[in-house]
Amino acid sequence: MKVLGLMSGTSADGIDAVLAEFRGRPNRPRWHLLASASVPYPPTLRHQLVAAGQGAALTAQAWLELAEAVTEAQATAAQACDPTGLAELVGCHGQTVWHRPPEPGRIGASWQLLLGPRLAQRLQRPVVFDFRSADLALGGQGAPLVPATDAALLGGIGGWRALLNLGGIANLTLLPPISGPDRHAAVLGWDCGPANTLLDLAAQHFSAGELSFDAGGAWAAQGQAQESLIARWLQEPYFQQRPPKSTGRELFGVNDLERRLAEIQALGCQHTAADALATLTAFSAAVVAQDLGQGAPPLELLVAGGGARNDTLMAELVRRCRGVRVRPLAELGIADDQREALAFALLAWWQQRRQRGSLPSVTGAPKASLLGILAPVPG
Hints:
Elements: E1 2-8, E2 14-23, E3 30-40, H1 43-53, H2 60-81, E4 89-100, E5 109-113, H3 116-123, E6 127-129, H4 133-137, H5 146-153, E7 161-166, E8 169-175, E9 188-194, H6 197-206, H7 227-233, H8 237-240, H9 254-265, H10 273-292, E10 300-304, H11 311-320, E11 325-328, H12 339-353, H13 360-363, E12 373-375
Parallel strand pairs: 1-4, 4-6, 7-10, 10-11
Antiparallel strand pairs: 1-2, 2-3, 4-5, 6-12, 7-8, 8-9
Helix pairs in contact: 2-3, 6-10, 7-10, 10-11
């Protein structure tokens, strides 16, 4: 089956799309990438989404119009990737505007903005959407969902294998080895903490809005990271919390950035914008390195997402993840902007095949769930 996957992450910078074909066993399908595209959000829409994700108050009318704009942007990305309409099915994540993990006595909730039936009508293809709510209803985190697809699409090697997505949030997948005493271990995964959320907000802050991100980490490369501050930040509750865990812009957003920038200034030295960006960049890498150090060390760390194009961040990962081979996932044929869109294409195919897509070992739910709601073509 040919399936179109659409994904927009926490960074809210645009939509990644892939057209893939899946055949064979659901848990280890034969798959082939047919096409891909990345379509940025219009600047005004991106600004609205980031503001909404930071808790900006919107009227009911404004929320509805925002959902319409997101849905139209998803349709544009779908048509850019699959202009001749080869896809038989569409898997669309939508745009997360708020994520609340479970708390004692309270199940979690997550809101991915999308008008699923409207997108199905627009594309004249059935659309699977709302992938997180079934796991959340069972008491799971609803995230991350990609570890299950990593296991199906890539599989293991002779030792533990780690996959890292550096989007707005950094999240890890750990795949057990194919041989040895850990070969029957569960697939693991969790959200480590901030990757690009704080970096992008800092670049916008220090450039007075002229830059939306630190391209290639060039600005951060000019500064000096404050290691004592990074060590203190790593002791904060979220980074000491054991998985399963998930997070987003609601925790690592503009308020968090302002607090960290104030702590940098409180060190009593004349710190530049480059120093602040260097510190935040090194912090993003240090969070991942700390998490990898909690268990059996992986043989390799495969990196995807926008942060994989940040040379300074990648260098920090190499420096801090000692003994681990750090390399781009693109070397295995999945580009930085394809992994998560491919994942949601597979999750949509699983929904059609009635294959449960969540992993209790990752989300903490008591059992696996069939993920997603199917919106058929109206009419």
